[in-house]
């Protein structure tokens, strides 16, 4: 028998985040689960199972951190290339300005 996925993974992540961030506002974890599950339209036991499962899983390194580091490296390379191009253009402008002065003096 196939188990149906009634809730999306995004919904589950949001629900878990709500419980973990708002748990301190309630007298107990169960009170937080009951209140939040009522608002989300799921059962407190389902929400408890999601929270328990998320706490049992080892936290994986954030892919956002890796992509940020990669993006920073790309931007640094691009910045270096643009500085090099800017120097070349500055030298070319100076060359042509000098050539124009030389042409006017003759």
Overall description:
By secondary structure, this protein is mainly alpha-helical. It folds into two domains: 58 residues, Winged helix-like DNA-binding domain superfamily/Winged helix DNA-binding domain (Arc Repressor Mutant, subunit A), CATH 1.10.10; 40 residues. 77% of the residues lie in helices and 0% in strands. The chain contains four helices and no strands. Helix 1 packs across helix 2, helix 1 crosses helix 3 and helix 2 packs across helix 3. The radius of gyration is 30 Å and the shape is rod-shaped.
Provide the number of structural domains.
2
List the helices and strands in order. Answer: HHHH
Helical fraction: over 70%
Shape: rod-shaped
Which CATH-level-2 architecture of the largest domain?
A: Orthogonal Bundle
Summarize the SSE layout with pairings.
Blueprint: H1 9-22, H2 29-40, H3 44-56, H4 63-105
Which descriptors apply to this entry?
77% helix; Arc Repressor Mutant, subunit A; 2 domains; single chain; mainly alpha; 106 residues
In a few lines, what is going on in this structure?
Helices cover 77% and strands 0% of the residues. With 106 residues, it is mostly helical. Helix 1 (9-22) packs across helix 2 (29-40) and helix 1 (9-22) crosses helix 3 (44-56).
